[in-house]
């Protein structure tokens, strides 16, 4: 019995307390001295300081007495007053204002901060004032917390106080900054990247977001001054250049597109100190024309290729002018293979109308020929195409992204290490970013105006010139399919918020081309494709069928064409390692529904790996562990039987998420079909979690 009375080790308590809610941790404070100590660490190691938060005064007083426990602090600085400023400097810096003649706190010292903040806020000082750090005249105390993570979000009403505090937190490993706009603020906070790198030698993760900031630098190193340096990694994990540049430890960097708008030869030289960088996250709220006018993706890409050899992950969303590949501009005297694609003049042209005044149908034909020719060149690696990020493993493209079709196809032809790709929906509105070209290239005139591509407004000469300048274009269904047919290293692929029409999936349709762009398949794959061609339409094989583990994709079909559904189920059965399958939500059109999981619609294709006439037990069914957004609403009486079928067919399936669809019953909108989840067969099946999404 005495052994049972022994307290749990502190390490075990720490693991348990990690999962407790704040209310439970307060209860644990009253149990024992040991529990009090461990609960206190959990409560006060990670805090949020916000003057507008409920009970903020009590929290501040508690933290001031336990600041030695602080490791993570989030400061929401949208309301700064004298008392809050006093508390912040006490908590974060163990700094107290000097006493006045009566021995009381000298509030004039703090009022100097607040007064200057108000002058900056209402525009009574020059913009340069926001770039100067206010010195703390009183020495810092010895009980400063050893912070590892610091997060700041605030407006220009707190920037001077923030500036005085930030650069004293030298132990940080992670720093998140969000510069927001509030009220009539017009001035932006100036960020000195070199100063940040110098002030935080242990920093691994840096995030600078918001829209009220700009980039400056105290150093004037030009790009050509560091272009000759080679980087070498030292024993302590940092890197030294042959020219003596000390490399920083930073591994993850989140920033806005404002960074990519920097001008001058020293715009991206600070990357010469970031040889350990592995991940970048880019966010943008700019318009497409602003991004096109102010960005230089060719300079940005070349700088990162030169200075950041370990970069392997890119996450981008919004109008970001980001190029993944360097597509050299073709000299004007080296485009005979392009001009040879111009159609012969029509009789109408021969009667006196200029051959350059091409009809829309002829323009479409020329644009298609140019696209097919470019496809072939990109897939065969012609034209000196080089990746800016040769070690790229993960690429995430968020909403309103501007990745071009050329970059996507080149990525499929030269994947090397790419294993994770997420493509979010691209809105239909035109983007000026796709009309960009390398304006620093020799013998190229800068555009007077950036224009989004419009086939009906382009002349034949303009189409040829855009092809010569290697201008990008928007991603289409055919580009996505071509990428999947050539990228053999993918393990995770997601195409969200978009459904691919069936006509763009099958081979032998009008969208296929005969320019040699088909990937060479294995002997077995080629034989299977020939058999499928003889039997009718088939879906071209993907190069990642042996490696893909998670797939998020949507389709559009006609509910009156079961053969279309059968072909896709057969295709999904080809993947040998697929563990998670997520369907995009069904389209709103009743005549184009999502993939139907029914025997009459060929769902058995999951069992036989896409091969006709074979027995069950093969294909993706034997590896699937999770299926999400599976349509269930087309036929009420089949829903319970469908769940039981998946339980039998997929022995490893643990999670089955069923798509939610409201129905009208007796003139009222209800959800009557959810009752099938209470059927005995469904409740007793081997799937652990069956639910409505």
TrEMBL record:
Q: Where is the composition biased (Low complexity)?
A: 515-525
> Region (Disordered) spans which residues?
508-538
Check the record and name the Pfam families matching this protein: F-box-like (PF12937)
Enumerate the spans annotated as F-box domain. 8-47
**InterPro entries cross-referenced by the UniProt entry:** F-box-like_dom_sf, F-box_dom, LRR_dom_sf
Q: Which Gene3D superfamilies match?
A: Ribonuclease Inhibitor
Name of the protein in question? F-box domain-containing protein
Cite the source lineage: Eukaryota, Fungi, Fungi incertae sedis, Mucoromycota, Mortierellomycotina
């Amino acid at each position: 019995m005495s052994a049972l009375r022994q307290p749990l080790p502190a390490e075990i308590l720490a693991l348990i307390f990690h999962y407790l809610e704040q209310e439970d941790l307060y209860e644990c404070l009253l149990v024992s001295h040991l529990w009090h100590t461990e609960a206190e660490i959990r409560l006060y190691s990670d805090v949020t300081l916000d003057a507008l938060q409920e009970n903020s005064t009590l929290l501040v007083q508690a933290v001031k007495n336990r600041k030695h426990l602080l490791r993570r602090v989030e400061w929401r600085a949208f309301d700064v007053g004298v008392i809050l400023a006093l508390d912040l400097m006490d908590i974060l810096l163990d700094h107290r204002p000097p006493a006045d003649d009566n021995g009381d706190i000298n509030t004039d010292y703090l009022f100097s901060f607040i007064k200057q903040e108000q002058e900056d806020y209402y525009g009574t000082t020059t913009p340069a004032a926001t770039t100067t750090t206010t010195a703390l005249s009183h020495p810092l105390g010895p009980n400063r917390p050893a912070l590892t993570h610091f997060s700041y979000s605030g407006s220009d009403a707190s920037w001077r106080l923030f500036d005085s505090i930030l650069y004293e937190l030298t132990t940080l490993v992670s720093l998140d900054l969000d510069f927001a706009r509030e009220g009539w603020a017009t001035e932006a906070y100036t960020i000195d990247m070199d100063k940040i790198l110098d002030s935080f030698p242990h920093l691994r993760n840096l995030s600078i977001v918001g829209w009220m900031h700009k980039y400056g630098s105290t150093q004037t190193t030009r790009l050509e001054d560091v272009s000759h340096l080679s980087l070498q990694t030292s024993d302590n994990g940092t890197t030294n250049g042959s020219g003596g540049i000390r490399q920083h430890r930073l591994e993850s960097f989140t920033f806005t597109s404002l960074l990519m708008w920097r001008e001058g030869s020293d715009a991206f030289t600070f990357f010469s100190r970031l040889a350990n960088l592995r991940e970048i996250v880019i966010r943008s709220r700019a318009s497409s024309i602003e991004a096109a006018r102010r960005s230089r993706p060719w300079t940005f890409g070349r700088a990162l290729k030169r200075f950041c050899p370990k970069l392997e992950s890119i996450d981008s969303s919004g109008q970001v002018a980001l190029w993944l590949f360097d597509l050299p501009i073709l000299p004007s005297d080296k485009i005979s293979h392009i001009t040879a694609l111009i159609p012969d003049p029509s009789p109408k042209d021969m009667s006196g109308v200029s051959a350059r005044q091409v009809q829309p149908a002829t323009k479409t034909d020329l644009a298609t020929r140019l696209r097919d020719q470019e496809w072939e060149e990109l897939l065969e690696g012609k034209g000196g195409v080089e990746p800016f990020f040769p070690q790229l493993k993960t690429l995430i493209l968020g909403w309103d992204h501007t990745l071009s079709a050329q970059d996507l196809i080149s990525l499929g032809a030269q994947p090397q290490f790419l294993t994770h790709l997420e493509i979010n929906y691209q809105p239909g509105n035109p983007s000026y970013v796709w009309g960009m070209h390398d304006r620093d290239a020799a013998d190229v005139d800068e555009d007077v105006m950036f224009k989004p591509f419009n086939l009906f407004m382009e002349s034949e000469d303009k189409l040829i010139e855009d092809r010569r300048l290697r201008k990008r274009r928007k991603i289409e269904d055919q580009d996505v399919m071509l990428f999947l047919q050539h990228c053999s290293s993918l393990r995770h692929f997601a195409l969200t918020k978009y459904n691919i029409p069936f006509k763009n999936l099958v081979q032998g349709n009008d969208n296929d081309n005969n320019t040699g762009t088909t990937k060479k398949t294995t002997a077995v794959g080629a034989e299977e494709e020939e058999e499928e061609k003889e039997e009718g339409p088939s879906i071209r094989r993907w190069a990642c069928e042996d490696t893909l583990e998670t797939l998020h994709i949507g389709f559009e079909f006609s509910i009156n064409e079961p053969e279309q559904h059968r072909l896709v189920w057969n295709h999904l059965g080809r993947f040998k390692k697929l563990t998670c399958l997520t369907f995009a939500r069904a389209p709103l059109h009743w005549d184009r529904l999502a993939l139907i999981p029914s025997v009459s619609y060929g769902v058995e294709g999951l069992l036989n790996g896409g091969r006709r006439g074979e027995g069950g037990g093969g294909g993706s069914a034997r590896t699937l562990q999770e299926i999400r957004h599976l349509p269930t609403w087309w036929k009420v009486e089949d829903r319970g039987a469908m769940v039981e079928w998946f339980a039998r067919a997929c022995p490893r399936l643990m999670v089955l998420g069923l798509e939610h669809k409201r129905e009208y019953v007796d003139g009222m909108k209800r959800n009557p079909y959810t009752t099938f989840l209470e059927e005995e067969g469904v409740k007793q099946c081997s799937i652990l979690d069956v639910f409505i999404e």
